[in-house]
Amino acid sequence: MGGDWLRLIPFPGPLREAYAAAPPRWEACRLTYLHLDERGTSVTVGLDTTDLPAVPPAAWHGEAFNAVQFFLRFDEVRQLRATGWTLSPHTPLTLAAGRDGMLEVTLGEGPFPFTFHAPTARVTTVRPYLAACSP
Asked: How many structural domains are present in the chain?
Protein backbone atom coordinates (compact mmCIF):
# COMPACT_ATOMS: atom_id res chain seq x y z
CA MET A 1 0.00 0.00 0.00
CA GLY A 2 3.03 2.28 0.43
CA GLY A 3 2.59 5.91 1.48
CA ASP A 4 -0.69 6.50 -0.36
CA TRP A 5 -2.71 4.82 2.41
CA LEU A 6 -3.32 8.11 4.22
CA ARG A 7 -5.55 9.29 1.36
CA LEU A 8 -8.08 6.64 2.51
CA ILE A 9 -8.44 8.34 5.92
CA PRO A 10 -10.99 11.19 5.71
CA PHE A 11 -9.60 12.97 8.78
CA PRO A 12 -5.78 12.46 8.90
CA GLY A 13 -5.31 15.61 11.04
CA PRO A 14 -2.30 15.24 13.32
CA LEU A 15 -0.62 12.56 11.22
CA ARG A 16 -0.77 14.73 8.10
CA GLU A 17 0.56 17.64 10.16
CA ALA A 18 3.43 15.57 11.60
CA TYR A 19 4.47 13.98 8.30
CA ALA A 20 3.48 16.71 5.80
CA ALA A 21 3.38 15.11 2.35
CA ALA A 22 5.22 11.86 3.18
CA PRO A 23 3.37 9.67 5.73
CA PRO A 24 5.04 6.55 7.09
CA ARG A 25 5.03 3.55 4.79
CA TRP A 26 2.09 1.27 5.64
CA GLU A 27 4.35 -1.78 5.65
CA ALA A 28 6.54 -0.03 8.27
CA CYS A 29 3.57 0.35 10.67
CA ARG A 30 3.10 -2.31 13.35
CA LEU A 31 -0.25 -2.98 15.01
CA THR A 32 0.11 -2.53 18.79
CA TYR A 33 -3.36 -1.72 20.10
CA LEU A 34 -7.00 -2.60 19.48
CA HIS A 35 -10.03 -1.19 21.30
CA LEU A 36 -13.71 -1.85 20.64
CA ASP A 37 -15.80 0.90 22.20
CA GLU A 38 -18.60 -0.76 24.14
CA ARG A 39 -20.49 2.55 24.33
CA GLY A 40 -20.72 3.09 20.60
CA THR A 41 -19.80 1.65 17.27
CA SER A 42 -16.12 2.52 16.95
CA VAL A 43 -12.92 0.53 16.72
CA THR A 44 -9.55 2.13 17.48
CA VAL A 45 -6.27 0.64 16.33
CA GLY A 46 -2.86 1.80 17.47
CA LEU A 47 0.14 1.63 15.19
CA ASP A 48 3.83 2.19 15.80
CA THR A 49 6.43 3.04 13.18
CA THR A 50 10.11 3.82 13.01
CA ASP A 51 9.53 5.80 9.80
CA LEU A 52 10.14 9.27 11.20
CA PRO A 53 8.96 12.54 9.67
CA ALA A 54 11.57 14.32 7.52
CA VAL A 55 10.87 17.52 9.44
CA PRO A 56 9.49 16.77 12.94
CA PRO A 57 6.81 19.14 14.25
CA ALA A 58 8.12 22.02 16.36
CA ALA A 59 6.35 20.57 19.42
CA TRP A 60 8.65 17.52 19.20
CA HIS A 61 11.89 19.52 19.23
CA GLY A 62 14.00 18.70 22.26
CA GLU A 63 12.40 15.26 22.69
CA ALA A 64 14.46 12.12 22.19
CA PHE A 65 12.57 9.72 19.95
CA ASN A 66 13.15 6.96 17.44
CA ALA A 67 9.55 5.85 16.90
CA VAL A 68 6.09 7.31 16.44
CA GLN A 69 2.77 5.97 17.69
CA PHE A 70 -0.57 6.94 16.20
CA PHE A 71 -4.18 5.87 16.59
CA LEU A 72 -6.86 5.43 13.93
CA ARG A 73 -10.47 5.50 15.10
CA PHE A 74 -13.02 3.96 12.76
CA ASP A 75 -16.55 5.21 13.44
CA GLU A 76 -19.96 3.69 12.68
CA VAL A 77 -18.40 0.24 12.38
CA ARG A 78 -20.48 -2.38 10.61
CA GLN A 79 -20.12 -6.06 9.77
CA LEU A 80 -17.61 -6.69 12.56
CA ARG A 81 -16.45 -10.31 12.64
CA ALA A 82 -13.96 -11.80 15.06
CA THR A 83 -13.55 -15.52 15.67
CA GLY A 84 -10.46 -17.16 17.10
CA TRP A 85 -8.32 -14.09 16.54
CA THR A 86 -5.42 -12.82 18.68
CA LEU A 87 -3.21 -9.74 18.46
CA SER A 88 0.52 -10.25 18.04
CA PRO A 89 3.36 -7.90 17.09
CA HIS A 90 3.28 -9.34 13.57
CA THR A 91 -0.48 -9.21 12.96
CA PRO A 92 -0.97 -7.89 9.44
CA LEU A 93 -3.41 -5.00 9.02
CA THR A 94 -5.07 -4.33 5.68
CA LEU A 95 -6.92 -1.12 4.87
CA ALA A 96 -8.80 -0.75 1.60
CA ALA A 97 -11.53 1.32 -0.02
CA GLY A 98 -14.58 -0.83 -0.67
CA ARG A 99 -16.84 -0.56 -3.69
CA ASP A 100 -19.61 0.84 -1.49
CA GLY A 101 -17.46 3.75 -0.25
CA MET A 102 -16.76 2.02 3.05
CA LEU A 103 -13.31 1.41 4.46
CA GLU A 104 -12.62 -2.32 4.68
CA VAL A 105 -10.30 -3.29 7.53
CA THR A 106 -8.78 -6.73 8.12
CA LEU A 107 -6.53 -7.63 11.03
CA GLY A 108 -4.83 -10.98 10.76
CA GLU A 109 -5.03 -13.56 8.04
CA GLY A 110 -6.02 -17.16 7.49
CA PRO A 111 -9.44 -18.63 8.18
CA PHE A 112 -10.34 -16.37 11.13
CA PRO A 113 -9.34 -12.74 10.58
CA PHE A 114 -10.85 -9.81 12.49
CA THR A 115 -12.76 -7.75 9.92
CA PHE A 116 -15.05 -4.74 9.81
CA HIS A 117 -16.29 -1.95 7.56
CA ALA A 118 -16.58 1.74 8.45
CA PRO A 119 -17.66 4.80 6.47
CA THR A 120 -15.11 7.05 8.14
CA ALA A 121 -11.89 7.11 10.12
CA ARG A 122 -9.78 9.71 11.85
CA VAL A 123 -6.31 9.96 13.30
CA THR A 124 -6.86 10.82 16.95
CA THR A 125 -3.35 10.94 18.42
CA VAL A 126 0.23 11.09 17.16
CA ARG A 127 3.14 11.02 19.57
CA PRO A 128 6.88 10.44 19.34
CA TYR A 129 8.62 8.16 21.82
CA LEU A 130 11.93 6.51 22.52
CA ALA A 131 11.55 2.80 21.77
CA ALA A 132 13.79 0.25 23.41
CA CYS A 133 16.38 -1.11 21.02
CA SER A 134 16.26 -4.81 20.32
CA PRO A 135 19.52 -6.78 20.10
From this structure: 1
Are the C-beta atoms of 98 and 35 separated by less than 8 Å?
no
Please give the residue range of the domain that contains residue 53. Answer: 2-129
Mean pLDDT, consecutive 10-residue segments, the chain of 135 residues?
79 90 89 89 95 91 94 94 76 88 89 89 95 67
- Rounded CA-CA distance 39/135 in Å is 41
Report yes or no on 135 lying in a domain.
no
**Has residue 95 been placed in a domain?**
yes
Cα–Cα distance between 29 and 13 in angstroms, integer?
A: 18
| Residue 11 DSSP one-character state | B
| Amino acid at residue number 116 | F
Phi-psi region of 26 (alpha: psi -120 to 50; beta: other; left: phi over 0): alpha
